[in-house]
Amino acid sequence: MPRYRDFYNPLLAALRELGRSATIDELNTKATEVMELPDDVLEQLHDPEKSNTTEVEYRLAWARTYLKNFGLLENSSRGVWALTKAADQVSEVDPDEVVRVVNERAKKKRESKTQKTEPDEPSETNEDDESWRQELFEVLTKVLDPAAFERLVQRLLRESGFIQVEVTGRSGDGGIDGKGIARIHGLMSFHVVFQCKRYSGVVSPSQIRDFRGSMIGRADKGLFITTGTFSKEATKEATRDGAPPIDLIDGDALADKLKELGLGVEVRMVEAVEVKKEWFSGI
Predict the structure, then answer these.
(1) CB atoms inside a 10 Å sphere around CB 251
(2) Fold (CATH) for 4-125
(3) Among the four 13, 143, 165, 226, which has the fewest Cβ within 10 Å?
(4) Rounded to the nearest 5°, which phi and psi values hold at 128?
(5) pLDDT digits (tens, 9 = 90+) for 90-118
């Protein structure tokens, strides 16, 4: 497993290949391709008991944070990362220098009391509070039973515009947990079968193939939903040329969708009021 600092230069190279900006998923994928990391490394989970985040994703988040604090990366509230103008002046960085400079800046902030402690977790606008994800993951994997999780997926699909959503859950049905019809702008529709896997592991390509074998001749598309994550090869298998397509929703995407739809996840906005003293001086 590469160290955190080993990801600095691959991240910079990946962003340059992607046109100087990218979403986190795009950036992570390209960076791991640059590093040519094997599947057994990519599939290691950081903490299987608390989340479906892989160790590589966790370390990449750390690396992005350090490069941001070093002044070479910036990120928007929409989750897009980009190179700064300062990055144009360097082709590669000395990882030890990045760590030293960032830690020194953090120390100065502590001493000036503008920051109590040096960040010990990745600090990103779009990843500003992972505690709710961890709590949701524990609820989905440890509190809900399989039948309740299937009903949750049924509700999620209905809230997302699916109609005639049924949970079958019959044993010997090849892993198909339910079916429904996806309506597109009220003009087109697709028959969809879905499988929902409530666990904290990595879905393998063989599981995707087994699911596809069960759906052939029964639906236009397949939907595989898991609280875990998908291996690189499983993702490739889901979109393999000439095979019926399967859409994948991993634990992070599931959490985002539940948050968006307000299903068991509530977003509370806190109002902040600030007096602009300089404004009054202009009266």
Answers:
(1) 24
(2) Arc Repressor Mutant, subunit A (1.10.10)
(3) 143
(4) -75, -20
(5) 889 999 999 999 988 888 887 775 545 44
